Structures are given as C-alpha cells and as structure tokens.
C-alpha cells in the first residue's frame, strides 16, 4: 500500500480546503493510505475514512516563515510530515506551505540524493503544444555551472516522468549565441553540450519558453523565478484588459459570451492547478509542493502527483541519472 | 531647427521600411532636418524632400554583428550616424540595428555622460493603467549595486520624460522581503532606499511588473531581458491559444468577430511600436534604438521619440540628476 503524508496546516486556505482535498482523494484512492498531519482542532467534527490516519502535532508554520525557523520548529505539521518520509513511515509528502520552508525541510529533514548539490523546484510551464519543465523555478538563486547541469539532468528525468520522450534541453540566456551571458552561462553551455549532445538545443531566450522551443528550460533560480512570475503577471494583464474592455460595450459582451468555451480553454491551459503540485527533485524521497493558494482541487491533484511519483519510483530514477554523471565526471578527471 | 540622423541600413526591414518611415516623418515634421545615412543604392529612385539630407557611406552592419566589430567598422551607416551626434552635426540618432552594436557605438562613439558608468536601455512596458519603465532591459547583463542605482536614477528621469509625475521605484527580485536576492540586490536595496526614500517601494516580483505596482523597475540587464522577453512569449502564447480555439467552432468565431474592437484594444496595448523607440539613457547625446523588426510606423514613432528627447533636453536632465548623486556620494564619503 502506498503511503502519503499531507500537511494540513500549509497553504493560504489551510486547513479547510486541504482537509477537503485530502478526504476526496482518500475516497477515490483506496490503494493509498493517507497520513493527515495536523493540530488537534483540525480533526474536530470530521470522520476519517478507513484509509486515513490521524497524526496530531503541536505547532504549525505561518506562510511567511523563514527557512531557518522552519528547521528549528520541529513540532510543526510541515517538519513532522517530512520526518515521516525520512523515517520511511510514508513514501511521499504533500504541502502547500511556504516554498523556502518546505525546501529547507526537504533538504535537511528528508535529505538529498547522494551526489546532488541542491534539490531543484522543477515546474511545468504551459506551451503552445503542451508544457515544458522549468528547472530551477526559484529554489536556488545563486548556483554554479555544474549545479545548472544537475538541474538539467533532474529536469530531464522529471520531463520523462511527465510523459515527454527524448526531452530537448535549453539554457535560459539573453541571446541564442554560444558566447552569450556571464561566465556562468558560458561554462554551463559547455557542460550541457557535453552531456546532452544533440538533445541540447543551446541557449534560449525568455520568449522561447512559452513557445515550447525546448522541453526542459535550465536556469538558476533567480532567472527561473523572474520568468515564471512574469508570465503570471502578463497573463493577468491580458485577461484584465480583455475583461475591462468587454464591459464597455454590449456587442463585445455578447461576443465574449459566445466565446466562453474558448476562454474556458485558455483558463484551463494557464491553470496552475492542472499540474497539481511540483516535486523538489533531488530530495531523497518524494516531496510535493502544492501552490500556496491551493484549493481542494489543487490538493487532490497534488496528492495524485505524489502517488504517481511513488508508482514510477521517481527518486531512484533521479539517483541513477545523477550517478551516471558523477561516474563519467570522475573517470574524465 | 532640430536635426536627427537615421541609420537606413539598421533593422530586419532595412532599407525599404526605414526609408519609408523616415520620408513620412520628414513630411509631417518640417521643423526637423533629417540626415539619411545610407549606402549609395539606398538613394536611387527616391526624391528627397527639402528637409532631408543625404549622407552616403560605404559600409553597413549585419543584424548579428558583434559589438567589437561595430566599433571597428568605422564607415558603417550605424557608426557614421552616431558620429554625427558626437560631432554636434545632429542632435539625435535613430537606428533599428543590432542592440549591442548600437550600445557600443553610443558608448564609444557618442560617449557617456560624465559620472555614468554604463548607459541603460530603458524600455516602456505595458501595465494595467498605462506603462512602467524597465531599466535595464538587456544592455548590461552583469553590474554592481551602484550601477543599479544609476539605472534607477536614469529610469526616473525617463519616466518623467514620458509624463509620469513622482515615479515610484521598485527593484526586481525573487521576493518582496528586504533580505531577498543575492548580495548585489541586498546592497542595491539599501542604496535605492537611501536615494529615493518614500518613492522606493522595495522589492517587486516578476508578476508585479505588468500589474503596474511601480513606475520604474530596476534590474540588471540579464533579469530585465528575461522579464521583457518572457512577456513577449506569454502574450504570443495566449493569442495563439485564442486563435486556434476560435477556428474550431462557428459560434466562437462569431463571438470573436463581435469582440474585434476588444482584441484591437489588446493588440494596441501590447504593441511595442506604440512606444516607437527607446533611449540608451546615459549617453552624452540622444540615441534611440528602434525595435529590430521595425516597419515604417515604428520608425516614424522612433523619430518622434527622438524629436521629443531633443525638445525636453533629456541629456542635460539626466546629467543634472546624476551630478546630484555623485555630489551627495562624495560628500558622504
């Protein structure tokens, strides 16, 4: 039986929406045992299905908690959820809590895969024909070229997990020529070409991400974070411009009504909830970060992502892929 | 009489569209004398209006030219256009050629304003209620905290030139808290707060840019370039999703037809041509970079921007603003 822990107190809509999503998932997935990690009052007035277990702790972390504090507050729902993975009580953990705090707990409580310098937040980004994987999307803001290579390797494994065969890799840069960027990008370019050969499509620019030029976009967390968040802002701007102009005119409003299925398609395509949650890839266990503003649908999907991660043994796949690089690196030196 | 040089051989659609835009502008602006800098064959079969002058040179730069090469090829249309500014023959220059090459010519041929470490490419970006200025948008990819302060000062003067009173300033970062980012951003945060006081709104994130949280977004050229280009890609993705789904269904197509004025509004709002051209701010003269894919409308607007720059004496305004900082810095040390 697959076992997943869920942090009931993480997320803007905790605990109500988290509990609701968890219970709905438990009902549909009798082959999963769910460990609900919460504080005493989370469990009042709810009756748990037989495949749910109650784990009561004393503390929980606010959404603006610092990573260092997250590590110190050992009785929190987040810390204890991660500890269940480390102690092999569960196979995976899901939390919608603070990203930095969860990364800290993933890294220091669950631990890293041997050879991984830093786990990466690998995030699916919508493209014209599907999606691409952005690694890193903000977990590690200042990294070395070799860390970028590790992000690429983890991103590729993650892309394969998401169903992409022979993923194409690109490095996020300020131009497509080989000599673009700082020394860091230039050195990363060389490492990526050496490792991925034909699958490495060279440097890509910001406008190539959503166009789906590659399947795995490699970036340090600063660049990845700017790209990901700028996209959110642009989508919001466009939708607001459309909305405010539709209101100004009856004919446009009628047009918008007729176009409703199209707008729904757009909304669905851009909806981050569709992807449910994202892994901290490189952690020695499955840690799924659900979006901070997750509702019950998002939590349901995040749990599904965790379950799939268990089913395909994502952690050991990453471990194998990284081992290969280290071996070839050692033999090369 | 205001005098402007235009590089006829810069841009993807040079020379035809550049010539067309220049002639249209000359016709509407009899108070401007236009120096058309081109190669011999550009002037065949065109008759120049009385306020146009022909400047024939021997060389021109390809769009993928390296900055170092741009400086070496002294007989190119771009180099010679910039030289006309340096020699005070004209008051401003417009080119749609390669960005790096033009920056190099602006910096080394026209020269920098005293005290300016690096000129910045300051670009207007659409927001909910208007636009904001992004400085730097890709001219300088690796800079020091003090250079970011200079970008901010130049961005503020540019925002004022564009009609924004009391511009609010923000630093592009990976989170809003003061301690976010690398040491560079943390130090820049301190310098910006010291200089701008209440007008400095602290760190902003990628999604805040298009929402218009601030009027001047300060960033190094790497971050600025990623943000600007990612926006382009996102807008393109959304428009493509809408288009492809509209085609699938007659009712949606009818809806789209009724919504045409709304889509036109959107297009206008996102159209980079509207802003025409952008200054390399910090150069000791007015150098306007038009978009590489400028058509005649874009060139017309870029020339208009150059003319406005002359009218408000943008260069001396920047010079004054920078002098202030240096004075306060010197007295502080």
From TrEMBL, chains A, B:
Organism: Thermosipho affectus
Signal sequence interval, chain numbering: none
EC number: 2.3.1.274
Reaction(s) catalysed by this chain's protein: a fatty acyl-[ACP] + phosphate = an acyl phosphate + holo-[ACP]
Superkingdom in the source lineage: Bacteria
Protein name per UniProt: Phosphate acyltransferase
Primary site of residence: cytoplasm
Family (UniProt): Belongs to the PlsX family.
Functional pathway: Lipid metabolism; phospholipid metabolism
Subunit-level organization: Homodimer. Probably interacts with PlsY.
One Pfam match: FA_synthesis
Subcellular location: Cytoplasm
PANTHER family (alphabetical): FATTY ACID/PHOSPHOLIPID SYNTHESIS PROTEIN PLSX (PTHR30100), PHOSPHATE ACYLTRANSFERASE (PTHR30100:SF1)
UniProt GO MF annotations: acyltransferase activity
Keywords linked to the UniProt accession: Acyltransferase, Cytoplasm, Lipid biosynthesis, Lipid metabolism, Phospholipid biosynthesis, Phospholipid metabolism, Transferase
Role this protein plays: Catalyzes the reversible formation of acyl-phosphate (acyl-PO(4)) from acyl-[acyl-carrier-protein] (acyl-ACP). This enzyme utilizes acyl-ACP as fatty acyl donor, but not acyl-CoA.
């Amino acid at each position: 039986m697959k076992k997943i822990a869920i942090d009931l107190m993480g997320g803007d809509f905790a605990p109500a929406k988290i509990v609701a999503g968890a219970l709905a998932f438990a009902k549909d997935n009798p082959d999963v045992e769910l460990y609900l990690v919460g504080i005493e009052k989370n469990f009042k007035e709810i009756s748990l299905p037989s495949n749910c277990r109650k784990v009561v702790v004393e503390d929980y972390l606010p959404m603006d908690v610092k990573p260092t504090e997250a590590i110190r507050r050992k009785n929190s729902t987040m810390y204890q959820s991660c500890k269940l993975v480390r102690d092999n009580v569960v196979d995976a953990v899901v939390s919608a809590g603070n990203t930095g705090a969860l990364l800290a707990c993933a890294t220091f409580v669950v631990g890293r895969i041997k050879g991984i310098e830093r786990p990466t937040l690998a995030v699916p980004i919508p493209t014209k024909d599907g999606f691409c994987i952005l690694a890193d999307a903000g977990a590690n803001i200042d990294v070395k070229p070799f860390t970028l290579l590790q992000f690429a390797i983890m991103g590729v494994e993650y892309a394969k997990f998401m169903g992409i065969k022979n993923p194409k890799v690109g490095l996020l840069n300020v131009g497509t020529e080989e000599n673009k960027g700082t020394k860091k990008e230039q050195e990363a370019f060389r490492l990526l070409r050496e490792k991925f050969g034909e699958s490495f499509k060279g440097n890509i620019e910001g406008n190539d991400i959503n166009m789906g030029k590659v399947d795995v976009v490699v970036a340090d967390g600063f660049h990845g974070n700017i790209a990901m968040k700028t996209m959110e802002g642009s989508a919001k701007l466009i939708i607001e411009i459309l909305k405010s102009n539709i209101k100004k005119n009856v004919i446009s409003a009628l047009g918008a009504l007729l176009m409703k299925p199209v707008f729904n398609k757009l909304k669905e395509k851009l909806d981050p909830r569709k992807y449910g949650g994202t892994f901290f890839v490189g952690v020695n266990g499955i840690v799924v970060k659900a979006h901070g503003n997750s509702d019950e649908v998002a939590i349901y999907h995040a749990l599904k992502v965790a379950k799939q991660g268990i089913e395909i043994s994502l952690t050991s796949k990453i471990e194998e892929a990284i081992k290969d690089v280290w071996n070839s690196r050692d033999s090369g030196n």
